[in-house]
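Protocol step 4 of 5: obtain the predicted structure for the target chain.
Materials: sequence only (see below). No template structures provided, no constraints applied. The aim of this step is simply to have a reference model before the mutagenesis design in step 5. Sequence pasted as it appears in the construct record:
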Amino acid sequence: MAKAGFSDTDLFGDAVIPAKEGRGRPEHVWSIANSNKVLLAFVRGLTVKQAATAIGVSVPTLRKHYSSELAQRDAAAIRYEMVQFSRLNELAKSGSVAAEKELARRLEKARLSDLSDSVSKHARPPRQARLGKKEEALQDAQDVRGLYEPPAPPAGLLN
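Step 4 output (structure tokens):
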């Protein structure tokens, strides 16, 4: 076991911090590795609670130490995709045919996804579910008017 440098890690790659004198858990320390894990959790679409669990902290601790990552939550997926496109583009410009093909494949997939989203926005709304016989009979009974209409309640009971 290493001393003072905390080079030992647990199963998930987190530093094992030896117990020190005093009560309670040691204060969480921000790290670039945990920051990247939080951002990747948001890219994947995880909730704040799931992102906190991913780095082994509570939600208040996540909010305290990773507020800038939380601010990027909505844009994380878009920014990650653009970074990937940029890297593939740089490799393609340097002559990598595989990178060029992969960039073209990903751009086409993104274009089709956007097209699918725009088409689904203009689609007809789904039909309402058809009522069964009993539900129709109850609704018809509620809509009775005329001679067989139930009488109105007395005026004194309505307040």
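Step 4 remarks: The chain is about 55% helix and 0% strand. The mean pLDDT is 84.
Proceed to step 5.
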